[in-house]
Amino acid sequence: MPELNATHDPKLTSWVESANDGRTDFPIQNLPFAIFRRQGSQEAWRGGVAIGDQIVDLAGSVQAGAFSGNARAAAQAATEPTLNRLMGLGATASSALRQALSQALQTGSAAEATLKACLVPQAEAEYALPARIGDYTDFYTSVHHATNIGKLFRPDNPLLPNYKWVPIGYHGRSSSIGVSGQSFKRPRGQVKPADADQPQVQASQRMDIELEMGLFVGAGNALGEPIAIEQAESHIFGLVLLNDWSARDIQPWEYQPLGPFLAKNFASTISPWIVTMEALAPFRAPFAHPEGDPQPLPYLSSSANSAAGGLNIQLEALIETPKMRAAGGGPARITHTNYRHAYWTAAQMVAHHTVNGCNLQPGDLLGTGTLSGPTLDQACALIELTSGGKNPIQLANGEQRTWLQDGDTVILRGWCERPGAARIGFGECVGTVLASAD
Question: Which of 92, 238, 274, 399 has the smallest count of CB within 10 Å of its CB?
Fold first, then answer.
């Protein structure tokens, strides 16, 4: 696991003044990666690093001679239209670049003049997916979400017996994953009400959110060579916010016996900025299954994972309805939780995914599954928050929501803070539901 180093020093400040206000998601202690270009331009997509309200253009920085050695090789890899090559270089390379950027962006750095010419305001940028996502796997790591959903579909047996032994996951669709700002048409599919004799094809009337996190794979593994849990985190490039939208009326009719299909594959939205595992080092947390639960099998267990496998990341989801947008009142929070509540860690996800010899590749995306906490106000999907649609959410402007309506925008946010460390964040993951094509 990444260890604390000079880049995490909470006393560090930057010559980019907007990075020093204590409220930004992107202080000098963070330095996340994205793929960007100037809005409306025909510029090449390329890698950038967030600092305050600015972006360090890595292509411009390389051209200006801002880096040397391993940091230059990593920066050169990040000048491409995706970050796959940088991811594939492994944690040592991205760490070298992050540490070089930290030194160059510090107050008093001799590199200020060089890098200042390479800044692009975030307000003038647009973003693409940070990687070419070859494969997408969605896990089910919140025992609270699994239990809540199980109670709705199997009241007498809500949690299946394998859940506390196996990090459950399924293979999803990568082609419909979009970056923050994604808008998509309400999906259509087969729906069969309980009192109907046969299904019918219609637009989903039970559109839902799933507040998750996504793990981008860095260096991959060869086919047939599992990744041991002790090395698992060195194969994770970093984390993003993930909204895995779901059509809850399509899902129950189709999901047996092979699992999610059309109810999930129409859209998934991720935040543009990837926060590296190294940046998250100050926010590690102990991990353990509750007393009395089965303990992880040896391939899912290590002393390091027990000591610091958890991640203390606060998460929230907000909704902005068309009425809110018209009134200019801003969005309303509907849930607030923490990634610490996950039943399986990031390292365990990687170790389990590869224990059979499956080969992960740079840029693969692993979703955590819906990250609901132990109480109802920490539930991270409308199906839980509304008890299966029975109890609508009351919004501050007088509106109600059971399921998402056309024009609703959902905003996910995530951040880390604790005494003795600089606050860092993930930016926003924004998506909007549009009317069906029918």
Answer: 92
User: Which residues are known catalytic residues?
Assistant: 145
3-state secondary structure of 89: coil
Helix axes 69-77, 91-105, angle to 10 degrees: 100
Q: What is the pLDDT of residues 151-172, one digit of tens each?
A: 888 888 899 999 999 999 999 9
Structure tokens at 435: 């009317």
Structure tokens at 167: 């990090």
> Does the model's pTM come out above 0.70?
yes
Same domain, 86 and 203: no
At 315, phi and psi to the nearest 5? -135, 145
Any domain includes 1: no
CA 5 – CA 92 distance, rounded (Å): 13
Residue with tokens 């962006």: 105
Structure tokens belonging to residue 129: 């997916």
Whether residue 189 lies inside any domain: the answer is yes
Q: Which residues pair with 213 in a beta bridge?
A: 241
pLDDT at 329: 86
Each residue's pLDDT tens digit, 61-100? 999 999 999 999 999 999 999 999 999 999 999 999 999 9
DSSP code for 111: T
3-state secondary structure of 325: helix
> Which CATH number do you get for residue 42?
2.30.30.230
Residue 14 in contact with residue 24, Cβ under 8 Å?
A: no
What percent of the chain has a predicted confidence (pLDDT) above 70?
A: 100
Instruction: Indicate the residue among 80, 103, 128 that finishes a domain.
Output: 128
Position 119 scores a pLDDT of 98
Longest dimension (CA), the chain: 74
Residue 196: is its pLDDT beyond 80? yes
Those residues whose C-beta lies under 8 Å from the C-beta of residue 197, and which sit 6 or more positions away, are none
Question: Which whole number is the average pLDDT over 275-299?
Answer: 97
**Residue in the block written with tokens 């969605």:** 138
Tell me the C-alpha distance between 218 and 199, whole Å. 43
The answer to whether the CB of 186 falls within 8 A of the CB of 207 is: yes
Query: DSSP string covering 24-38, please?
Result: -S--TTT--EEEEEE
DSSP for 238-284, please give it.
EEEEEE--EETTTHHHH-TTT--STTTTT-EEE-S-BEETTTTGGGE
Average pLDDT over residues 398-410: 97
Give the residue carrying structure tokens 């202080």. 27
